[in-house]
Specification:
Blueprint lengths: L23 E5 L5 H17 L2 E4 L7 H14 L3 E4 L8 H9 L3 E5 L9 E4 L3 H16 L3 E7 L5 H17 L3 E3 L4 E2 L4 H14 L3 E6 L4 H11 L7 E4 L3 H10 L4 E4 L2 H16 L11 E2 L3 E2 L2 E3 L2 E3 L4 E3 L10
Helix pairs in contact: 1-9, 4-5, 6-7
């Protein structure tokens, strides 16, 4: 399994990282969370490797208005490139247009097909990711029974693509399984995910599984299962860093975390942004190597896809450093 050596220093979100370089880049992720601490580590590593100044600023919560204000502030400061993980694919478009008018490069992550971005970078094919989540869940549910789906919000493109593709795969291949309820937009907030799970346990007494995307949904739901003595009785496939979800995997509150290394994603975003700034967009094609990460596997419209998905379980979560 390919691993990228990333810096271990997690800096405060609102403090710029001082790195010498001819370009200045800012990252504006969805919120402050351990997941995006790891994203910041990848930025730092990419900045050092490729000789750019890069820093991260994040809203305190997954709030689209806060995120847009931070993007606008950095446009006013005249950065060369903006790396964004959008809370809402539509709300960032006007800001991206202003950035492009000023000659800035815009790279996104978790937002396939993002309007206004030069490139969107993903560490895997989003459809395959959703299908993998459902396959792992079906395996543990015995391919039958009711399950619910959590997303970060109904406006995060990647989250909804994962769930939609996973549910479509389930309907075709596991007809004895059934999604109940609508998509619950709670998995960027651990407390909301916990409360939603407590409510769901009352509403759906026959529930057998949980299909969760978003880094805080698994821990929140896992805490609720612990409180209700339901650990092991309801199967859960979610996301989240190995260190954050390790205890839930250990006691069976979560069965698997299907994820990617957000540090690798950030590192790739820095590299792609620099290629565009250097006037080397023509080099960005299938097979192009990102130093220390590997080759681009697929380019679909303005989306760059790698093949670096991780399946983390009780047996291997200690193998990871994040």
């Amino acid at each position: 399994m390919r691993k990228m050596l990333l810096g271990l220093l997690a800096l405060a979100f609102l403090a710029p990282v001082a790195l010498a370089g001819e370009y200045t880049m800012v990252s504006v992720p969805k919120l402050r969370a351990l997941w995006f601490n790891r994203f910041e580590e990848g930025l730092i590593e990419g900045g050092k490797k490729f000789g750019v100044e890069v820093y991260q600023q994040a809203p305190a919560a997954a709030d689209e208005a806060q995120q847009v204000r931070i993007i606008e502030d950095n446009i006013a400061q005249g950065v060369n490139a903006i790396i964004v993980v959008p809370n809402d694919a539509n709300s960032v478009v006007p800001a991206f247009r202003r950035a492009k008018e000023r000659g800035m490069v815009v790279v996104t992550h978790e937002s396939e097909g993002q309007e206004g971005a030069d490139w969107n970078v993903e560490l895997f094919d989003n459809v395959v990711y959703g299908e993998t989540q459902v396959k792992e869940l079906a395996k543990r549910m015995g391919e039958e029974g009711e399950y619910v789906c959590f997303v970060g919000s109904l406006t995060v493109p990647a989250h909804n693509m994962w769930v939609d593709s996973g549910v479509a795969y389930q309907k075709k291949h596991f007809p004895k399984m059934r999604m109940v309820g609508e998509k619950f937009p709670v998995s960027e907030d651990r407390n909301l995910a916990r409360q939603a799970t407590l409510d769901i346990l009352q509403t759906y007494p026959n529930l057998k599984g949980m299909f969760i995307v978003g880094s805080q949904g698994g821990p929140g739901a896992g805490q609720a299962l612990r409180e209700k003595g339901m650990v092991g009785k309801i199967k859960m496939v979610a996301g989240g860093t190995p260190k954050e979800v390790g205890s839930f995997l250990e006691d069976g509150a979560m069965d698997a975390s299907i994820l990617w290394d957000p540090g690798q994603a950030a590192y790739a975003c820095v590299y792609i942004a620099k290629k565009v700034l250097d006037g080397e967009s023509g080099d960005i094609k299938v097979g192009m190597e990102v130093p220390g990460l590997g080759p681009i596997k697929v380019i679909r419209d303005n989306n760059i896809l790698f093949d670096n998905m991780l399946v983390v379980t009780k047996e291997n979560y200690k193998d990871y450093e994040f």
